[in-house]
Automatic annotation (TrEMBL):
It holds the Pfam family BCA_ABC_TP_C. It comes from Variovorax paradoxus (strain S110). InterPro entries: AAA+_ATPase, ABC_AA/LPS_Transport, ABC_transporter-like_ATP-bd, BCA_ABC_TP_C, P-loop_NTPase. PANTHER family: ABC TRANSPORTER ATP-BINDING PROTEIN (PTHR45772:SF3), CONSERVED COMPONENT OF ABC TRANSPORTER FOR NATURAL AMINO ACIDS-RELATED (PTHR45772). Keywords: ATP-binding, Cell membrane, Membrane, Nucleotide-binding, Transport. This is ABC transporter related. PROSITE patterns: ABC_TRANSPORTER_2. Residues 2-249 form the ABC transporter domain. CDD domains: ABC_Mj1267_LivG_branched (cd03219). One of its GO terms (molecular function) is ATP hydrolysis activity.
Length: 255
């Protein structure tokens, strides 16, 4: 269970996130929506450790994460796609994913055993990396350097690296942003598949209400840094407070 309690951050006199308390259970996908400047990405940054909270706490499965670095939170089970971009831009796509797989696994690569054991372990890591690349439709680009990838393939690689780390919590901040109509379905299909694993928690910041409607089990709405609605998608989208706070976007989607 991921939980934030009274999570707050102030920038001078501006309160960007104001006392947000929320719990996110395994087996659910929660969409976080709201107008531009509502505090959605800032809330993500507080959870993942990119920003230091002015007040409040973040915990995962009873472990207090507040005060930990982003990398320590990743080791604890938080996974956020953008943290992983350009891991090694001059290495190939396959090498990047294999390194991410390697970071989560015990094996001969950690213990310096004989060459046969190291080769066998390396083969298993490569096979897992190949499987992930096939899942994100990047197998044909496995020998390309990360720096040479177009934007859409970079977003796919972010998801691949996130999958390789096998986190307890997947955090997606507009995962299809900048993708064309042919690329976006690959990422959305992956999220649908991740939803099937009821041990995982998924948080999704998304502006496309059709995507939210389809994928979300629950919606929370932030407005001016404050949690203003929380519940099932149809109920939340139809609520007057959301129709007002979302500047007409939810109202149009509901029409």
């Amino acid at each position: 269970m991921l939980e934030t309690k009274d999570l707050t951050i102030r920038f001078g006199g501006h309160v960007a996130v104001n006392g947000v308390s929320c719990a996110f259970a395994p087996g659910t996908l929660t969409a976080i929506v709201g107008p531009n400047g509502a505090g959605k990405t800032t809330y993500f940054n507080l959870i993942s450790g990119q920003l230091k909270a002015s007040a409040g706490t973040v915990s995962l499965d009873g472990q207090l994460l507040s005060g930990l670095s982003p990398s320590a939170r990743t080791h604890a089970g938080l996974g956020r796609a953008f943290q992983l971009t350009n891991l090694f831009p001059n290495l190939t796509v396959l090498e990047n994913v294999r390194l991410a797989v390697q970071a989560t696994r015990e094996g001969a690569h950690r213990r310096g055993l004989n060459l046969w054991s190291i080769w066998s372990d390396h083969k298993a890591l490569t096979e897992r990396a190949d499987q992930i690349l096939a899942d994100v439709a990047l197998k044909s680009r496995e020998h390309a350097t990360v720096a040479s990838l177009p934007h859409g393939d970079q977003r796919k690689l972010e998801v691949a690296l996130l999958m390789a780390l096998e986190p307890k919590v997947f955090m997606f901040d507009e995962p299809t942003a900048g993708m064309n109509a042919a690329e976006a379905p690959v990422i959305l299909d992956l999220i649908r598949r991740l939803k099937q694993d009821k041990t995982k928690t998924i948080l999704l910041v998304e502006h496309k209400m059709d995507v939210v409607r389809e994928l979300a089990d629950r919606i929370i709405v932030l407005h001016n840094g404050t949690l203003v609605a929380d519940g099932e998608p149809a109920e939340v989208i139809a609520s007057p407070v959301v129709q007002e706070a979302y500047l007409g976007i939810a109202k149009e989607a509901a029409a």
